[in-house]
Backbone:
């Protein structure tokens, strides 16, 4: 029951959202960014701009530079040339922690969680950036530290309910199935209360049902909190269903951008990415 | 206190006399959030006003679909306040089943828990001419729905407050106008034989059953009850609505069905009702965990289990427990029983009931042995839930206790149990013929169960009267009796036995995926899927051993001779069992006719094609080869009869 119900709604959601787009200037602008590793040109002169409240997908074959771009946005890599501006601030040279504090959160292609800790503790860690109490008051767990802990826990409980993790709250992450760990990682990223969420292959290695659930959570995050989302994903069905904008990368360059329909009809994309003679909408990579 | 009242009147009374006391607790965001009796009434009144604003009035029907949530109770009481009828539906019913109930009951307003249920109802909109309004509790995912008949619970209450300002005292007047004899609940039977039937119950029916139960057992306002049963089951309506209002204890609702066991432990309810399946599953979980525990713990568990069960048998026999046993019990209480009850969340439980179907004697004895006051109850939807219960200190695995005060029991000539009391229902909705067939001329309800009254005056239920048959040699044979013995095995999930007019008893067994999976792991047995696991010769061997154990407890004539391990579970979506998990024997016999013929035809295997239904109602055909085995067979033949690995081919068929 759940599957069909969700599926049909998934489409309705994407359609409703794209019509409600706002145009108060892009939230994130990457201008002419390049990154080399020795002789390898991972990213070459890429420019993208992302409007507030959108779901923007980046697709392309392996090694196209998708993850490198996310790493530059989140501050793990510094671009060799070009600039990155988030909400009017130049973040080209900012450190990852500073970028996180500005409201950019991410998940990783290979899950990055503390396996020996519980689901709740992992999500609580995501709140770290919002914690103000010092070492001393935290040690005695009194006053501000206690009030803070309670408030943050309440927020985490909202996320646990949102991601339907109630029954796993006190379970160690190491014992969870892969798809659930991905969901916990999304929770950890959401705990930051991000304005921009970077998702690196959130559905990698999932079965169809888990993918549909995850797509559903992504749409809900976008709709519920208006969070902007940049998504790297290989499953074309999902990408075309939930994205407002799609950027296509190939060998470090952006070769196309547009709405899912535009990209699917673009001959350069069909040639370079989906393979000559292929038809749009099919599973790639 | 007399039963001369109505549920909404009791709610108003409780709101006045126990205003600030917790009526309900719901676990939300990880915390048990209380609702006081005053809030229960306020929320109900506002919603009732909203219903009135939408044109809902006396004689109209309101359905609720979802897990136990306070708002679904507010909604049911709201309908009753206005003289309407509440129709709780099974939340896991597929759309076609739901359509039947909603249409048959002429439901005009549906209150659904969440998007999943709303989607289901909206997909049926065109088939439900009476439907005027769909109300949802959880707004998640419903923001973009453009559906004129869809409203949030808050919005209806908002409309209600506006309506209330213009019509002061509207709900209060309607409540006062309500009479005990008015219909207030349609409880649809799960239908083991046919389409569900709408059992019409009045306030007086429900309250007399609640009153009788509260007199049979000491139930107090301070009790904590955990309400997690399907809302559509009469047992839930009786405890979580009628008895709740009658006694004024606290009803607690778990966070999610998946968190039930954790919530149970956190809460430690003092009273609970659970179907046999819950106790069977819990025992299975305990045994699996014990098997995985360290040697010392496993040893202790086994020793003290034996002691406790021996003591329990003695208590049942003549009440004499030796000093040695008593010492063992005291030690076991500290080391095993107490901690185990605590883990299960039953440490505070003063009594817990099992009902809805018979529970295996060994399971029953186990829980009693570790100090859980488990008691059997008996009843029927047509009796507003219950009509008999075992008294404290007078408990026995084979009986269902004595009839409630004010309930008359008799055994008809053909062995059928018949009941007369104030709880006997008002008839099946729009099915007068079926109603007449269920009642005797002098006002007794025919329960359809075969049973007798033993020397102590306890009622003993044998089986459904129509299922009791005879083997070819004339031996009386009650299939459920045999199946219950089989189901005591932790490895057997469900079983159906055949034997009526047959030369011997044969069984179709569906294994329990969790315990058998766990067993296979410990045996280093590799398998790819549930179907593959079921087809393994080792599993057939395991099941054979379990059947032998069961046969040892059965008279020679009705021992199981041949069996087959099915490669799927019996599923309510496939109509094989009811939503309350009772085998639909006739349907199974028809569906598996070829398999049954093969069981009696002496063949070693059978080709079988079955239609399976996915959760969303889609259907597919599953083709497979099933192996049939004899329970007792010569060693030499075993190789030949060993089943071949048969991976089923699934072909989609819309």
Residues:
């Amino acid at each position: 029951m759940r599957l069909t119900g969700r599926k049909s709604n998934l489409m309705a959601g994407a359609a409703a959202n794209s019509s409600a787009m706002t145009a108060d200037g892009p939230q994130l602008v990457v201008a002419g960014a390049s990154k080399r590793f020795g002789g390898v040109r991972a990213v070459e002169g890429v420019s993208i701009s992302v409007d507030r409240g959108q779901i923007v997908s980046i697709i392309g074959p392996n090694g196209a530079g998708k993850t490198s771009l996310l790493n530059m946005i989140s501050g793990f890599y510094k671009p060799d040339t070009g600039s990155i501006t988030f909400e009017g601030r130049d973040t080209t040279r900012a450190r990852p922690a500073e970028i996180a504090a500005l409201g950019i959160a991410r998940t990783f292609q290979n899950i990055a969680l503390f396996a020996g800790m519980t689901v709740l503790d992992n999500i609580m860690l995501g709140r770290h950036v919002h914690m103000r109490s010092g070492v001393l008051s935290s040690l005695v767990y009194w006053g501000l530290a206690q009030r803070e802990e309670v408030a943050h826990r309440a927020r985490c409980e909202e996320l646990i309910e949102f991601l339907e993790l109630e029954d796993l709250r006190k379970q160690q992450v190491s014992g969870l199935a892969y798809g659930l760990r991905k969901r916990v990682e999304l929770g950890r990223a959401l705990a930051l209360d991000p304005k921009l969420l970077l998702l690196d292959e959130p559905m990698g290695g999932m079965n169809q049902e888990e993918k549909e659930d995850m797509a559903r959570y992504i749409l809900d995050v976008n709709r519920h909190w208006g969070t902007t989302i940049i998504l790297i994903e290989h499953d074309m069905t999902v990408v075309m269903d939930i994205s407002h904008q799609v950027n296509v990368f190939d060998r470090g360059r952006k070769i196309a951008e547009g709405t899912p329909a535009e990209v699917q009809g673009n001959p350069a994309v069909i040639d370079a990415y989906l393979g000559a003679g292929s038809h749009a909408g099919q599973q790639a990579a | 206190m007399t039963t001369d009242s109505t549920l909404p009147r009791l709610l108003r009374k409780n709101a006045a006399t126990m205003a600030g006391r917790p009526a309900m607790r719901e676990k939300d965001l990880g915390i048990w959030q209380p609702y006081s009796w005053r809030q229960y009434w306020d929320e109900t009144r506002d919603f009732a006003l909203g219903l009135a604003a939408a044109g809902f009035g006396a004689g109209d029907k309101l359905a609720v679909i979802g897990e136990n949530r306070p708002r679904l109770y507010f909604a049911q009481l709201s309908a009753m306040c206005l003289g309407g009828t509440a129709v709780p539906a099974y939340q896991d019913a597929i759309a076609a089943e739901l359509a039947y109930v909603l249409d048959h009951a002429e439901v005009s307003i549906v209150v659904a828990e969440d998007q999943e249920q709303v989607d289901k109802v909206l997909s049926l909109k065109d088939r439900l001419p009476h439907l005027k309004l769909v109300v949802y509790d959880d707004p998640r995912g419903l923001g973009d729905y453009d559906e004129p008949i869809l409203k949030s619970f808050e919005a209806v209450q908002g409309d209600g407050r506006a309506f209330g300002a213009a019509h002061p005292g509207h709900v209060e007047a309607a409540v006062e106008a309500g009479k005990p004899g008015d219909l207030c609940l349609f409880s649809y039977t799960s239908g083991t034989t046919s389409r569900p039937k709408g059992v019409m119950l009045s306030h007086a029916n429900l309250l007399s059953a609640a009153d009788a139960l509260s007199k049979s057992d000491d139930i107090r306002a301070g009790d904590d009850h955990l309400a997690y049963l399907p809302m559509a089951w009469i047992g839930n309506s009786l405890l979580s609505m009628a008895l709740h209002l009658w006694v004024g204890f606290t009803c607690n609702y778990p966070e999610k069905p998946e968190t039930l066991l954790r919530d149970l432990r956190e809460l430690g309810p003092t009273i609970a009702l659970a179907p046999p399946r819950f106790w069977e599953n819990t025992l299975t979980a305990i045994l699996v965990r014990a098997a995985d525990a360290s040697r010392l713990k496993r040893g202790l568990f086994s020793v003290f289990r034996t002691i406790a069960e021996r003591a329990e048998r003695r208590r049942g026999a003549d009440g004499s427990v030796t000093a040695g046993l008593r010492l063992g019990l005291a030690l076991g209480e500290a080391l095993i029983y107490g901690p185990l009850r605590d883990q299960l969340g039953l440490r505070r439980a003063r009594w817990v009931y099992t009902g809805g179907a018979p529970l295996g004697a060994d399971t029953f004895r186990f829980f009693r042995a570790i100090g859980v006051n488990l008691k059997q109850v008996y009843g029927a939807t047509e009796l507003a839930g219950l009509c008999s219960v075992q008294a404290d200190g007078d408990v026995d695995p084979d009986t269902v206790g004595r009839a409630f005060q004010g309930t008359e029991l008799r055994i008809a000539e053909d062995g059928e149990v018949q009941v007369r009391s104030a709880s006997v229902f008002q008839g099946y909705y729009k099915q007068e013929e079926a109603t007449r067939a269920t009642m005797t001329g002098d006002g007794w309800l025919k329960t359809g169960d075969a049973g007798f009254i033993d020397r102590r005056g306890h009622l003993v239920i044998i089986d459904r009267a129509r299922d009791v048959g005879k083997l070819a040699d004339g031996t009386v044979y009650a299939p459920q009796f045999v199946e219950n013995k089989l189901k005591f095995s932790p490895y057997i999930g469900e079983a159906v036995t055949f034997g009526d007019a047959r030369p011997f008893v044969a069984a179709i067994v569906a294994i329990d995926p969790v315990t058998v999976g766990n067993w296979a792991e410990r045996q280093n047995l590799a398998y790819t899927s549930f179907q593959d696991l079921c087809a393994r010769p080792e599993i057939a061997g395991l099941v054979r051993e379990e059947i032998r154990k069961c046969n040892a407890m059965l008279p020679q004539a009705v021992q199981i001779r041949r069996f087959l391990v099915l490669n799927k579970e019996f599923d309510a979506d496939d109509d094989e069992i009811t939503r309350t998990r009772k085998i639909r024997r006739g349907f199974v016999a028809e569906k598996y006719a070829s398999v049954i013929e093969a069981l009696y035809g002496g063949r070693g295997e059978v080709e079988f094609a079955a239609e399976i239904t996915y959760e969303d109602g889609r259907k597919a055909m599953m083709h497979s080869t099933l192996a049939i085995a004899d329970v007792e067979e010569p060693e030499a033949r075993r190789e030949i009869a060993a089943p071949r690995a048969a991976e089923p081919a699934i072909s989609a068929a819309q």
